[in-house]
Amino acid sequence: MQNSVISYPRIGALRELKFGVEKYFKGLSSKEELFSLAKTLRKTHFQTQKEAGIDYISCNDFSFYDNILDNANIFGVVAKRYKNLNLDPLDEYFAQARGYQGDKGDVKALAMKKWFNTNYHYLVPECDDISLIKLNAEKILNEYKEAKDLGIEAKVVVSGLFTFYKLINFINDTDKKEALTKLKSAYKELLNELNKAGVKWLQFDEPYLVYDLSSSDISLFNDIYKDLLHNKAGLKILLQTYFGDVRDIYDYLLKLDFDAIGLDFLEGKESLNLLKKGFDDKKILFAGVLNGKNIYKNNYKKTVSLLKEIQKYAKNLVINTSCSLLHSPYTIKNESKLDAKFLDYLSFAQEKLLELKDLKEILSSSDIENHPSYKINIELFSRENNRKNEAVSARIASLKDSDYVRKPAFKEREKIQKQLLSLPLLPTTTIGSFPQSADVRSNRLAFKQQKISATQYTEFNQTKIKECIKFQEEIGLDVLVHGEFERNDMVEYFGESLDGFLFTQNGWVQSYGTRCVKPPIIWADVSRSKPMTVSWSKFAQEQTNKLMKGMLTGPVTILNWSFPREDISTKESTLQIALAIRDEVLDLEKAGIKIIQIDEAALREKLPLRKSDWHSEYLNWAIPAFNLVHSGVKPETQIHTHMCYSEFSDIIKEIDAMDADVISFEASRSNLELLDTLKANNFQTEVGPGVYDIHSPRVPSVDELKNTIRAILEKLPKEQVWINPDCGLKTRGEKEVIQSLKNMSEATAQIRKEL
Predict the structure, then answer these.
(1) Res 564 pLDDT > 70
(2) DSSP three-state, residue 598
(3) Is 437 in contact with 467 (CB distance < 8 Å)?
(4) Span 464-491, pLDDT tens digits
(5) Where are the beta strands (DSSP E) in 80-196?
(6) CA distances to 124, 188, 282, 359 from 224, in Å
(7) C-alpha gyration radius of the chain
(8) Which residue spans within 587-728 are E strands per DSSP?
(9) CB 508 within 8 A of CB 328
(10) How far apart are CA 321 and CA 625, in angstroms?
């Protein structure tokens, strides 16, 4: 019996990579220093896995920013606008991720999208010149050699060509067929290079196989791998899938010359049934049974039972993670504040390595029931852990269908709101947060460490709120926000204010690039014991005659950006949160807040990857959960929501059914493609398509923003449009935010004159 890890987190135990890369961005360190840090981190990650007894350790899973971006650069799928900058290769790489504005040019960053059903974001490769497609295997070979020097025969991880090809954005009239031919040649060359280097195992990651596949998709996959596998020579190939099952293509996988196939037995609800149809005894099955996404300890009794069932059908078995451990925090060793009664149940990436070791030993044991690790685990899961709140259960049980419906209908509310709110054409606003400068973070930390009083903490933030409001008034924004200086994170803040959540000190997970989030842990039934945002919003509204938005995070996003419970359904957890946020909405309304934004940035995140499961497993409760939050407000109260970095075109009718009054979308990085869908579906809700990308330090000019607004107005009626950035501004620098918002306001004013 052996074990394996699909990929390992790269940020470091204390986010060393994040800080190192950001230091380089600021010009405070050299390229050589950044490379040295990366090598040190890789060495640590290799050794950690080796010491934990992992048999199949991955290399080329490290990245400065994003693995798909890495793959694009390895195979030369780089848009000409970045090549034309004539930058150093590392700076060219970062220009693709962040955009570039300097003496060599002004280019936007690549589009960013959610990675399947996770909160990780990948950069969408662009291909507009197929002559650039060629292999550069330096990164792969260097990292393989680093592992080899540590006595590790690592498996090389590369994005599979089918998934990679499906993710590429081919620009204009790029010949996709010819591009595929060149990519296949580059992948064949990689196989030759790996064989020359003595590599034993190559892992092709093909998560796209868990989607609904068309007959043309299946033909494409077969065409790619029948061709590639002819070139494998002595190299062994692992075809690795995750985030679901491969029901559409399983039979084809068995017929192809893969040496191993990796299946997800947790999210892949049909994986076991597929296996029962038969498996090739000449192939190794990498069985994904250890949850790579959640942080609760593995239940050995359940997993051993599953593995025993799998063993009936697969002769050669490797115990594997269900997906990359990139989606888990690094280690619980840096958690000194959580009580042991909670820590006993938690397992981050480093601890999952030990669970893999345990499972390998347990399954190899002649007396499983008496194996020490097995017995300890059984005892843990037999303990009473007091997670239920009877009052919460009773409240959910009493919900009626009418509790999910807001009255009157949207069109009637829209008339009432336009009359009462008296907003101009193309109202301007921001999504919510303003930059969290060092003094803001220091103030919060000092309060947390009890170095300053609650009064001092509050007065500091109130001063910041006043400054933020004054700036927004000066540049002429129409609907203001208070800046959210009291908030650490849009989910963590609410989790800290609600009962039922746990919080870590260093449970960081990479969201994109250098952006890391620290998701709360939903431990017990969720409820609200006191208002969470009312005093801040009320104070802010008292400082201005303009309309102030109350800012909340929606229940689906709080659930999706937290580590969920595994002992109750996701639906029940979400409804608990929805009732708590509903109470906050009604309190904000009572406090005189006329516009309330309930962000659902992560609505799509847990949407099943197969369309046949969308309504039965998700949308039929996720949309009503949002409706429940705002259904009790008055017609004149305007409800906003916000969504970002997902593809929404195929669920646009469901989004309209959320029955918000205004929805702001990320749109700038995707070239406003969503607007065609809104128009085609007669989208009712008023819309704020993001007019510039806040995930890049680039400052858009007034003319650029005017052109963007004009493009929006070509697709949507002017009465339906709001003007705003595409997301919150918390992570941006103050200087760039000030100039960008000034330009946005000025561009809007000029367009209003044109209209």
Answers:
(1) yes
(2) strand
(3) no
(4) 999 999 999 999 999 999 999 999 888 8
(5) 100-102, 105-107, 112-114, 121-123, 126-127, 155-159, 169-170
(6) 21, 11, 22, 35
(7) 26
(8) 595-599, 638-643, 662-665, 686-689
(9) no
(10) 32
Q: Is 472 left (phi over 0), alpha (psi -120 to 50) or beta?
A: alpha
Task: Quote the crossing angle between the two packed helices 67-74 and 138-149, to the nearest 10°.
Answer: 120
- Pair (277, 425) in one structural domain: no
Strand partners, 106: 101
Asked if residue 626 lies in contact with residue 399, where contact means CB atoms within 8 angstroms, the answer is no
Neighbours of 417 (CB within 10 A): 21
CB atoms within 10 A of CB 136: 13
Dist. CA 636–CA 418, nearest whole Å: 9
Question: Alpha helix (H) ranges present in 329-480?
Answer: 340-343, 349-364, 372-381, 390-397, 410-421, 438-448, 454-475
Each residue of 207-238: pLDDT tens digit? Answer: 999 999 999 999 999 999 999 999 999 999 99
Place of tokens 């009083």: 453
**Cβ contacts of 228-234, under 8 Å, gap ≥ 24:** 228/161, 228/184, 228/187, 228/188, 228/191, 229/256, 229/257, 229/258, 231/188, 231/191, 231/192, 232/191, 232/195, 232/202, 232/257, 233/191, 233/192, 233/195, 234/195
Element (H, E) at 237: strand 236-240
719 lies in some domain: yes
Neighbours of 434 (CB within 10 A): 26
Chosen domain end from 254, 288, 322: 288
695 is catalytic: yes
Residue 613 CA from chain centroid, whole number: 21
> What is the token pair recorded at 369?
């029931």
| In-domain check, residue 293 | no
CB count in 10 Å sphere of residue 308: 11
Cβ contact 635:416 at 8 Å: yes
* Catalytic hit among 121, 327, 482, 695: 695
Compute CA 699 distance to the chain's CA centroid, rounded to the nearest angstrom.
25
What is the Cα–Cα distance from 116 to 118, expressed in whole angstroms? Answer: 6
Domain region containing 749: 410-436+472-754
Residue 597 lies in a domain: yes
Compute the CA torsion angle 292, 297, 302, 305 (nearest 10 deg). 70
Percent of the chain whose pLDDT exceeds 90: 88
One domain for residues 282 and 425? no
Percent pLDDT > 70 in the chain is: 99
With tokens 């010949």, the residue in question is: 175
Please name the helix (run of DSSP H) or strand (run of DSSP E) that holds residue 311, with its range, or none: helix 300-311
Contact call for residues 644 and 112 (beta carbons, < 8 A): no
Confidence (pTM): 0.89
- Cβ neighbours of residue 415 under 8 Å, at least 6 residues apart? none
Instruction: Please state the domain count of the chain.
Output: 2
Q: Which amino acid is at 106?
A: D
Give the domain CATH number at 226.
3.20.20.210
Are 731 and 25 spatial neighbours (Cβ–Cβ below 8 Å)?
no
Whether residue 294 lies inside any domain: the answer is: no
Structure tokens at 72: 């694009």
What's the CA gap between 513 and 122, in Å, rounded?
9
Helix, coil or strand: residue 663:
strand
The domain boundary, picked from 272, 288, 304, lies at 288
Distance separating alpha carbons of residues 73 and 50, to the nearest angstrom: 29
Other CB atoms within 10 Å distance of the CB of residue 571:
17
